[in-house]
From TrEMBL:
Gene3D superfamilies: Calcium-transporting ATPase, cytoplasmic domain N, Calcium-transporting ATPase, cytoplasmic transduction domain A, HAD superfamily/HAD-like
Cellular component GO terms, alphabetical: plasma membrane
Organism, as annotated: Leersia perrieri
Protein known as: Phospholipid-transporting ATPase
Enzymatic reactions: ATP + H2O + phospholipidSide 1 = ADP + phosphate + phospholipidSide 2
Low complexity: bias regions: 17-31
Region entry Disordered, spans: 1-31, 44-92
Length: 1194
């Protein structure tokens, strides 16, 4: 079909208005169309496959004849993403790697062997049938649970039965049951959400008519119609929209967190065909997770294949905005949609403290084995010594005399077998040496700690009204042991809100904006005054030159701002003026994916070049009150390979110009330096000055295209965009061929302001002994300037700079750096007086280092420096730097960033934190924790991190001590009962000891206790070093706790034993006394270590003792259980209460004495600060701060 050389002008998009007072989500589009990163030409932006050289020439000539109204058309390269993200859209598509979708023919599309999934989603883990087996399978991944299961199974063997079958299974069943209930509730919530999602309705074409249909019933190949503000039910290729130009706006906030509108468009071939008659074949890539890439072709009946790209597909979860309706063909449904493929949740990590717990668990397992071995050997010796009496001893009953005519062995398998039975029975008896309740207690404590972190008002982002997010509950305590912080710069240390500060135009520096106005340049449309939403200060000289200047410099300045306003993907939107909504005045808000582009367009508006309207083929610019139309003939979007963006513009004077902007290291390679060399040198000087001020810089260039050059470009682009093989390389070649021999117009300087509190936060982290490394993609000068402004770098620091362009020079730089470090070390032996060092290294040097195995040299230099600043680094290099430290030290690492380029770094670090900023939610989705500002890192680490580590460390040690005390009491009893593994303590008390009697107090204390207040921890950041030195949990403390448990078990057992040794008290009564004594003792031990009391702590500790007494009384009140009424008999005597008091006093004396000596004669930093808190008064203001230790005291 022939396509006319000239198409009618696009009809403006529907107008929507936004009113803050009414809360409406609507806004008015200035007939804007943008972000179409795929194929098109000057003759027709929607058709990239039906025109050849003849139509190319005619289109150029029609533009020449039409003047300011040429044929609208746009040609685009792939979207503004990294090379890895765009790989999916530029690789070759082979049949075996493709999915074939027949448009409006779901039956044929899904016919065998295809059978694509329907559109239902399922995020649940379990079903009714699979819940029990799968949940148990997941829980038994914990080796400790397998250990307790084996012991419960052994207890079912008659010869090994220590507890009753029910009692032996109860502790494990309780722990498994609580976890199962939690998992079931979470999965039920997911099931309910899935049901609501699947039952939503969409308009699907059935028999030529659109009918309502549940989302779950949509199939690949069906045509789906979506109206404004509706959510897209599946991934679909756009075939038609309400806009005659085929444009549709989508908001991807549910997909990647970006709120700015993005433009998608339908191909002209599908737009011109009635929807009910639409048929053809889409050949697309198989489902993948890349939300920024899409590779496909569509072959309509009687036509050749037309290429499809990212701008032609709308993804599930996006919302249709500013477009009345859109129709698409479903290509990915259900679990194949990109949003579901990316729904992987938070990464799974294991805390350092939990890993260290394995060490102590192994020690306890060895102790348990030694105890069991000792008991079994002693039992063997006892059996050998009493072998003649075994026939009549009731416990063994070696002989069965029930039949007087025949005497035979009864329940006797020989001494060797009995010794083996004794060993296994001892393992069952002493099994609580490894606390089964510890694991579920840790989970509950982490949930409680996460609650208080989320509710902390000091980490609430007022600007975004966003709370702190705890996405990984299993590494809370790691926040208290961080030694290295790896931070992105843009959007993490800075606001990622750009402000135009200065410009270099034709060799002249225009940065004197102090005297300029900041009101912006207002324009008028239909009697309404439109003013840019963001005002920019202007340079009076530059403004005067733009208005009245003549000559080459003035012409260059006008082209400079013309480049700023045209070479972008900005969408102008009109919103109400909140300051005066009733006035005939509105604000122009520029929306786009790049904050840099927004700043440049606002700057152009301030200098009189106001972007008013953008459609698929032209741009309307108000130039000092005069409307001018510029036609977009082609567009090559920015990408991380070329590092530049270009646009081909048809100007009102009938000339065709190529405007280009990009990074300096990319642009100077395509600038014609023989043209105005003085301008080039001056611009380079200005760029260096801007970078030294910490500004982000861009270089601007242009050239005028002849008719032959334009035709050559258009034919090359048509050929490249329709190629089925090697399309990506051909497109890159077309862009590189046209972007050459440019005339330098100037450069811009944009300031990315620091976030509030960043310098203070970095200083606090440094005082806490945390090393902060910044990994950024910015220029070295910019990064160094930001480093000084945020106090990362100081004037006292000696900078080691490594900028190498070859492997040999990189190796020599590293050797020189090592020599310098060693020399400075030898000169300053005192750690307090040593010279601080800062390492500055660029991405090129890192490439050579990682390629030539010089990581060890880099590591040696880096750890000797106080600060490391990496410039021009790629995302994988960021992860490589983190891995450099993780592999060679045992120090904990934390990575923090806000963009997709920080994801690999965040996932590599021990703790990953995402900043919910301007660059979407990719970093948040990959993180363990998420927050709104970098400064929140200070309360997170210094306050919550310290609390979490101190609490969790103590809770783990206390659990080991508590259970060991109980086991040693049982052990002493076994030694006095012929090693028969009988026990005076009832089996139910043994089972309930670690689950009911003593579990609640330790959980409450681990959630609520605070060794120091927030104010003290922030005032003295050095206190954070206690976690880095593992002062709250280490092998030495574990040994002390175990010694304490042995002593207290001796007191619990022998004081009552010696008192009742010659009495007639029964074992059950003595067992009840031991049960109460050990419970009271361990709870008083806990109470003695509590720092801050509240009513919940009181209720938990003292209530646990009362609950134990009640449980013992209930157990002894059941006639069928052993020890019926025993507690009531022994409680009536004064000796019972005297013995309880004696046990408590004797058992706690060593702990009390050790605590008093440690705190009064050998205090550590924490204890000193705690005493300061107790005596806190007016002396805090007048007395100097206490110097904190940097090393742990013995």
């Amino acid at each position: 079909m022939d396509v006319p050389a000239k198409l009618p002008d696009p009809v403006p998009s529907p107008i929507l208005r936004h009113s803050p007072s009414s809360g409406s989500a609507m806004s008015r589009s200035l007939r804007s169309v943008v972000d179409m990163p795929s194929v098109t030409f000057a003759a027709d932006m929607r058709s990239d496959s039906t025109r050849g050289a003849e139509s190319t020439a005619s289109s150029f000539e029609s533009f020449r004849r039409a003047g300011s109204r040429p044929v609208p058309g746009v040609a685009r390269l792939p979207t503004r993403r990294s090379a890895s993200e765009r790989a999916g859209s530029q690789r070759d598509l082979r049949d075996e790697d493709a999915r074939f979708v027949y448009i409006n023919d779901a039956a044929r599309t899904n016919a065998p062997p295809a059978r694509f999934p329907d559109n239902s989603v399922r995020t649940t883990k379990y079903s009714v049938l699979t819940f029990i087996p799968r949940n148990l399978y997941e829980q038994f991944h914990r080796v400790a649970y397998v250990y307790f299961l084996i012991l419960a199974a052994l207890n079912q063997v008659p010869q090994l039965g220590v507890f009753s079958p029910v009692a032996s299974v109860l502790p494990l069943a309780f722990v498994l049951g609580v976890t199962a209930v939690k998992d079931a509730y979470e999965d039920w919530r997911r099931h309910r959400s899935d049901k609501n999602e699947n039952n939503r309705t969409a308009s699907v074409m059935v028999d030529g008519v659109f009918r309502p249909k549940p989302w779950s019933d949509i199939h690949v190949g069906e045509l789906v119609r979506v109206v404004a503000n509706e959510t897209l039910p599946c991934d679909m290729v756009l075939v038609s929209t309400s806009d005659p130009t085929g444009v549709a706006y989508v908001q991807t906030i549910n997909l990647d967190g970006e709120s700015n509108l993005k433009t998608r468009y339908a191909k002209q071939e599908t737009m011109t065909t009635p929807t009910e008659a639409l048929a053809g074949l889409i050949k697309c890539e198989k489902p993948n997770r890349n939300i920024y890439g899409f590779l496909a072709t569509v072959d309509l009946d009687g036509r050749r294949a037309v290429s499809l790209g990212t701008s032609n597909i709308m993804l599930r979860g996006c919302e249709l905005k500013n477009t009345a309706w859109a129709i698409g063909v479903a290509v990915y449904t259900g679990r194949d949609t990109k949003v579901m493929l990316n729904n992987s949740g938070a990464p799974s990590k294991r805390s350092r403290l939990e890993t260290h717990t394995n060490r102590e668990t192994i020690v306890l397992a060895i102790v348990l084995a030694l105890l069991c071995t000792l008991v079994s050997l002693l039992a063997g010796i006892w059996l050998s010594d009493h072998s003649d009496e075994l026939g009549v001893i009731p416990y063994f009953r070696k002989k069965d005399f029930s039949d007087p005519n025949e005497v035979e062995n009864y329940k006797w398998y020989g001494t060797g077998a009995q010794v083996a039975f004794t060993f296994m029975m001892a393992v069952i008896q002493f099994q609580v040496m490894i606390p089964i309740a510890l694991f579920i207690s840790m989970e509950l404590v982490r949930v409680g700690q996460a609650y208080f972190m989320v509710q902390d008002k000091h980490m609430f982002d007022e600007k975004r009204q966003a709370r702190f997010q705890c996405r990984a509950l299993n590494i809370n305590e790691d926040l208290g042991q961080i030694k290295y912080v790896f931070s992105d710069k843009t959007g993490t240390l800075t606001e990622n809100r750009m402000e135009f500060r200065c410009a270099s135009v034709h060799g002249g520096d225009f940065s004197e904006t102090d005297g300029g106005e900041a009101d912006g340049h207002a324009v008028t449309e239909d009697g309404v005054v439109l003013r840019p939403k963001t005002a920019v200060k202007t340079d009076p000289k530059l403004m005067a030159m733009l208005k009245d200047g003549t000559g080459a410099k003035a012409d260059a300045a006008r082209d400079f701002f013309l480049t700023l306003v045209t070479c972008n993907t900005i969408v102008p939107i009109i919103v109400d003026d909140t300051e005066d909504p009733a006035a005939a005045r509105r604000l122009v808000e520029y929306q786009g994916e790049s904050p840099d582009e927004q700043a440049l367009v606002y700057a152009a508006a301030a200098y009189g070049y106001t972007l008013v309207e953008r459609t698929s083929g032209h741009i309307i610019i108000d130039v000092f009150g005069t409307r001018q139309r510029f036609d977009v003939l082609g567009l090559h979007e920015f990408d991380s390979d070329r590092k530049r963006m270009s646009v081909i513009i048809g100007c009102p004077d009938k000339t065709v110009k190529l405007f280009v902007k990009g990074a300096d290291n990319s642009m100077f390679g395509v600038i014609d330096k023989t043209m105005n060399p003085d301008v080039v040198r001056a611009t380079e000087k200005h760029l260096h000055a801007y970078s030294s001020l910490g500004l982000r810089t861009l270089v601007i260039g242009m050239r005028e295209l002849s008719q032959e050059e334009f035709q050559e470009w258009q034919m090359a682009y048509e050929k490249a965009s329709t190629a089925l093989l090697g399309r990506g390389g051909l497109l890159r070649g077309v862009a590189a061929n046209i972007e050459r021999n440019l005339r330098l117009l100037g450069a811009s300087g944009i300031e990315d302001k620091l976030q509030d509190g960043v310098p203070e936060a970095i200083e606090k982290l440094r005082q806490a002994g945390i090393k902060v490394w910044v990994l950024t993609g910015d220029k070295q000068e910019t990064a160094i300037s930001i480093g000084f402004s945020c106090k990362l770098l100081t004037r006292e620091m000696t900078q080691i700079v490594i900028n190498s362009n070859s492997r040999d020079s990189c190796r020599k730089s590293l050797d020189d750096a090592i020599s310098m470090v060693n020399k400075l070390r030898s000169l300053s032996t005192d750690s307090q007086a040593r010279v601080p060092l800062a390492l500055v290294i660029d991405g090129n040097s890192l490439v050579y280092i990682f390629d030539t195995d010089h990581e060890d040299k880099l590591f040696e230099v880096a750890i000797a420096c106080d600060v490391v600043l990496c410039c021009r680094v790629a995302p994988l290099q960021k992860a490589g730097i983190v891995d450099l430290i993780k592999k060679r030290t045992s120090d904990m690492t934390l990575a923090i960033g806000d963009g997709a380029n920080d994801v690999s770094m965040i996932q590599m670090a021990d703790v990953g934190i995402g900043i919910s900023g301007q660059e979407g939610r990719q970093a948040v989705m990959a993180s363990d924790f998420a927050m709104g500002q970098f400064r929140f890192l200070v309360p997170l680490l210094l306050v919550h991190g310290h609390w979490n580590y101190q609490r969790m460390g103590y809770m783990i040690l206390y659990n080991f001590y508590r259970n060991a005390t109980f086991v040693f009491v049982l052990f002493w009893y076994v030694l006095h009962t012929g090693f028969t593994l009988t026990t005076a303590i009832t089996e139910w008390s043994s089972v309930l000891y670690s689950v009911i009697y003593t579990a609640v107090p330790t959980i409450v204390v681990a959630i609520l206790d605070k060794d120091l207040g927030r104010r003290t921890l922030l005032k003295y950041p050095q206190l954070y070093g206690a976690g880095q030195r593992e002062e709250s949990y280490n092998l030495r403390l574990f040994i002390f706790f175990m010694i304490d448990s042995i002593w207290q078990s001796l007191a619990v057992f022998f004081i009552p034993y010696l008192a009742y040794r010659k009495s007639t008290i029964d074992s059950a009564s003595l067992g009840d006394l031991w049960t109460l004594a050990v419970v009271i003792l361990v709870n008083i031990h806990l109470a003695m270590d509590v720092i801050r009391w509240n009513w919940i702590t009181h209720a938990a500790i003292w209530g646990s003792i009362v609950a134990t007494l009640i449980c013992v009384m209930v157990i002894d009140s059941i006639p069928i259980l052993p020890g019926f009424w025993a507690i009531y008999k022994v409680m009536g005597t004064g000796l019972f209460w005297a013995l309880l008091l004696a046990v408590i006093v004797v058992g706690m004396v060593p702990h009390f004495v050790a605590k008093a000596i440690r705190e009064h004669f050998l205090p550590n930093d924490i204890q000193i600060a705690r005493e300061m808190e107790k005596s806190q008064d007016s002396h805090d203001v007048t007395h100097p701060e206490v110097q904190m230790n940097t090393m742990a005291r013995a």
